[in-house]
Specification:
CATH class of one domain in chain B: Alpha Beta
Strand order of the largest sheet of chain B: 3-2-1-4-5
Distance between the termini of chain A: 55 Å
Number of helices of chain A: 23
Number of domains of chain A: 4
Number of strands of chain B: 5
Oligomer: heterodimer
Shape of chain A: globular
Structural class of chain A: alpha+beta
CATH superfamily of the largest domain in chain A: Beta Polymerase, domain 2
Largest sheet of chain A: 4 strands, antiparallel
Strand order of the largest sheet of chain A: 1-8-3-6
Shape of chain B: globular
Largest interface: A-B, 20 and 23 residues
Distance between the termini of chain B: 35 Å
Number of strands of chain A: 21
Strand content of chain A: 15-25%
Largest sheet of chain B: 5 strands, mixed
Structural class of chain B: alpha/beta
Radius of gyration of chain B: 17 Å
Radius of gyration of chain A: 28 Å
Order of helices and strands of chain B: HEEEHHHEHEHHH
CATH topology of one domain in chain B: Nucleotidyltransferase, domain 5
Strand content of chain B: 15-25%
Number of helices of chain B: 8
């Protein structure tokens, strides 16, 4: 006979036949009309609700904020099943039919089924992993997440610096190696076949002269145990063909691009090469246009969002750098600094995002074609598929092109206005604080950032004004509010991403942290013990989750708004994660309010 | 119906000696029993009951934890034509209890509560046939016809509308999920949910 409850979805699929019977024997169904406020804050729960059909909202009547929505197959309120009073209120948005299970039966099931209990007791990070494991077959490209170990590293032969050219060549031939490691007074250098040719042919050295002079001592290295992906990234970033693999201080081997490439199935490096080799704007444009496909490929192959963002940040940076080099005369290049800001500056864009860029000019620069060149720069980026910045933070806007001194004055101004609570100025500071230099004379940027950090030091009132911006979107689901669920969407950017990013930015400025990436900032803050270890982990996971949800939303067709998340499109598992994530955001907000002493936000 | 109503004192008198005197007392609790039978045919005078599903409704709750789901072996094998409708094969009910055994369980479950059903007259007539046979009385419970409840609620606002009373249409209009269609218990639960929606929810939109 057909049962009236289906045990096919998580976590109820974990119950055994006998437990399913116990479950069914105690299961009731309850009906609520629209806007029924059926659980009140502070009540002791006696039932676990599982939504059969409808929509339920978790909110707080006391401070008018919304925490989560529950729809078909979702369940609540887990926290209050163990005797503690309900922390929030629950009401129906639509007419809702729920299954109800008495709390004591639920607790019995938890006690008798470890896997079932586990599901409810895991924290966010673990739950995320559990979800990923369930969707395991999507992770086709696991090899990219392979770690560097003995199996994929080529051995490094270390020779003394007094070995002759002839012996070195002989060793390479005999051992079929491309490179040798040369040790000179504790310093390691890399010697390649090309280096030997240069010594023998170009410099006409005798065959018994030492190799010491011809090795390259500026090595880029990567730790053993790191992801293969990072080795790849290091090579892409430095435009080199091989990296040294180290274990602590000792060299354990060499990793070559050709080798890594053979392990890779995606085209990321091919694109990087095309960018690097582009001789004109047309070629660069073609390379840039393939980027979105790459992201889609990587996502479909289940690559972690952090890696995608990192790769994309590198790629976008290189495209801009190349375009800059193609457009700007060489004599000017070394006197100006091209900076990217916003999500690009933080290395957090998931697709090609708005152009947020500016220019710092050297003091003694003479550049008559400045305006025309910069206008062309923005125009070309637009044709590459980077939409213009709605706030006009672009190099074709003279406001974002200033000499160092003008920038210093401008920042001074913003700091001054910021102290009197001008949120406009504070946002400008936030923008420039996230700047990242991509091309030209990169030393021009750090003094500006230092100025912001110095200017904010000890100015508690201003920092508090600054941090308040993160709290301005009152409730995480604000946008969604009382709108009917059918045409509703959740603004994940306002509701989650912005709060975390800006909150962390405020803390980073306060602590004088120079790095721009939010995840890196969170780690720094945890090191400084501003954030607790657990909190920092939760925040990192949550932010990644939000980015991932946003990316998925971007990649699926027919979506209406860029930042609107259609929660009915999510699987119960994903919604579950989202709910956890929004809770983390909520906790973080109260942490911020406490930390910066902000009242009545 | 009126005729039976007039005969009720005699029914009550006959039941007073038996274990079902309680059926004739006024309903004391705010509960309704939703009931559904799967039968061998659609003629209440000759059909045999195959399964009975029943569930209590209290307040805004459908008490599925106190459900009743009985399988009954009919006196003669199931007519082949009806099997595709109710999906109950002869082997499914082999060895099940007889109706004589099932009846006391059902009557105890229903008690003096009103009986709710979809075309409830069919189910009550069926049961009455057997109570008449075994105990000599008809069910005195107040019948609640889902279609009437629906009609009353909708007709005020759409007086001229032609109302489709098909089970699926009804559930769809009321926004109630259909639980196990054509299993007696599933239909009883679905009817109970539709009843709650009509009692407590907003008026369904027909257009």
């Amino acid at each position: 006979m057909a049962e009236h409850f289906t045990f096919t979805h998580a976590p109820f699929d974990l119950l055994t036949k006998n437990q399913q019977k116990l479950f069914l024997d105690h299961l009731d169904i309850v009906y609520f009309p629209e806007q029924a406020h059926f659980i009140k804050q502070g009540e002791t729960a006696s039932l676990l609700y599982i939504v059969l059909k409808g929509l339920v909202e978790e909110f707080s009547e006391a401070n008018q904020s919304i925490f989560a929505h529950y729809t078909n197959n979702d369940f609540f309120d887990i926290r209050s099943q163990f005797g503690s009073p309900c922390k929030h209120d629950y009401r129906t948005i639509e007419e809702t039919i729920c299954h109800t299970l008495p709390s004591d039966v639920f607790r019995d099931l938890l006690n008798s089924n470890a896997a079932f209990a586990d599901y409810f007791q895991r924290d966010l990070a673990q739950k995320y992993a559990q979800l990923e494991a369930r969707e395991g077959n999507k992770n086709l490209a696991e090899f990219i997440l392979t770690r560097i170990d003995d199996s994929n590293v080529q051995p490094a032969i270390v020779i003394g610096s007094d070995v002759s050219l002839k012996t070195a060549t002989k060793m390479m031939l005999e051992q079929k190696l491309e490179t040798l490691i040369v040790e000179q007074d504790g310093l390691y250098g890399m010697l390649t076949g090309t280096d030997l040719l240069r010594a023998a042919v170009l410099d006409e050295q005798t065959l018994d002269s030492a190799v010491a002079h011809y090795a390259n001592y500026r090595l880029i290295s990567i730790e053993q145990g790191d992801f293969l992906f990072n080795a790849m990234l290091a090579m892409t970033q430095h435009q080199i063909e091989r990296v040294v693999v180290k274990n602590g201080d000792s060299i354990v081997g060499i990793m070559e691009m050709a080798h890594v490439l053979s392990l890779f199935s995606t085209h990321s490096h091919v694109i990087a090469l095309r960018i690097a080799r582009a001789k004109n704007i047309e070629e660069l444009k073609k390379a840039a246009q393939t980027l979105n496909n790459l992201v889609e490929n990587l996502t479909n192959n289940g690559i972690k969002i952090v890696f995608i963002m990192e790769l994309l940040a590198t790629m976008n940076g290189q495209i801009m750098k190349k375009l800059f080099e193609l457009l700007v005369p060489e004599s000017v290049q070394n006197q100006v600094c091209l900076i990217v800001m916003g999500s690009e500056g933080r290395g957090e864009q998931i697709l090609k995002t708005d152009q947020d860029n500016g220019l710092i000019l050297g003091e003694h620069l003479i550049w008559p074609e400045q305006r025309a060149t910069l206008a062309a720069f923005s125009q070309h980026l637009l044709s590459f598929g980077y939409p213009p910045c709605p706030g006009q933070v672009m190099v074709n806007n003279p406001f974002w092109v200033k000499t160092s001194n003008q920038w210093h004055e401008q920042i001074e101004q913003w700091l001054l206005h910021g102290q009197s609570g001008d949120s406009e100025s504070l946002m400008q500071l936030a923008i420039i604080n996230d700047a990242h230099a991509v091309a030209g004379d990169k030393t021009l940027l750090p003094p500006l950032k230092q100025q912001i950090i110095d200017g904010c030091k000890g100015k508690e009132v201003m920092l508090s004004q600054f941090a308040r911006i993160a709290l301005q979107f009152g409730s995480p689901l604000n946008f969604f509010g009382h709108i009917k669920s059918n045409d509703a969407g959740l603004d994940i950017k306002k509701g989650g991403i912005f709060t975390i990013v800006h909150g962390i930015r405020s803390l980073a400025i306060e602590q004088g942290i120079a790095t721009t990436n939010t995840l890196a900032r969170i780690r720094e803050l945890a090191k400084l013990r501003v954030l607790e270890q657990k909190q920092s982990q939760d925040l990192q996971e949550t932010l990644q989750l939000f980015f991932w949800l946003r990316l998925e939303q971007h990649l699926t067709p027919h979506q209406q708004g860029m930042n609107l998340l259609d929660i009915t499109q999510l699987t119960p598992n994903e919604r579950d994660l989202l709910r956890h994530g929004l809770h983390v955001v909520k906790k973080f907000k109260s942490f911020l309010a406490h930390h910066f002493m902000i009242r009545d936000y | 119906m009126l005729f039976q109503r007039l005969l009720r004192p005699f029914d009550k008198m006959r039941a007073a000696k038996g274990p079902f005197a309680g059926l004739f007392t006024p309903c004391s609790v705010d509960e309704v029993v939703s009931i559904d039978c799967e039968t061998t045919s659609l003629d209440p005078q000759s059909a045999d009951i195959l399964t009975i599903g029943a569930v209590k409704i209290r307040g805004n709750q459908v008490l599925t934890s106190q459900k009743l789901s009985l399988k009954i072996q009919p006196p003669k094998p199931i007519n082949q034509d009806s099997i595709p409708v109710h999906h109950i094969r002869n082997q499914d009910i082999a060895g099940a209890m007889s109706l004589e055994q099932a009846l006391p369980i059902l009557l105890t479950f229903i008690g003096n509560r009103p009986i709710l059903g979809y075309f409830v007259k069919f189910d009550i007539t069926l049961i009455n046939r057997y109570t008449e046979l075994y105990y000599g009385f008809h069910l005195p419970n107040k019948p609640i016809e889902l279609c009437h409840v629906y009609y009353k609620k909708v007709n005020t606002y759409y007086p001229d509308a032609w109302l489709d009373h098909k089970f699926e249409t009804l559930a769809d209009t009321l926004g109630v999920p259909i639980i196990g269609r054509h299993s007696a218990l599933g239909d009883a639960i679905t009817v109970a949910l539709m009843y709650l929606q009509l009692q407590q929810g907003k008026r369904p939109k027909l257009m």
